[in-house]
Amino acid sequence: MAWATTEHIGCAVSQSCPNYWYIVCHYRIGGNVVNENVYMPGPTCTSCPTGYHCGADKLCTNS
Q1: For 6-44, how does the pLDDT look when each residue is reduced to its tens digit (9 = 90+)?
Q2: Which InterPro entries match (predicted)?
Q3: Rounded to the nearest 5°, which phi and psi values hold at 44?
Q4: Is the preceding peptide bond at 29 cis, omega within 30 degrees of 0?
Q5: pTM of this prediction?
């Protein structure tokens, strides 16, 4: 699960047997912080960091 503060994510998928798949993802900045929200509640793109804007997918982006 990518958190609101996650800036980069990379994932890999591998099939080990006909019915088994492994999916591994690495995040920067990490998440899973106890007692914190995954995303900030409120209207989309109202808290984009400096240098970011609201993209076509309604997520903050710097590209």
Answers
A1: 888 999 999 988 889 999 999 887 777 888 888 878 899
A2: CAP_sf
A3: -65, 145
A4: yes
A5: 0.51
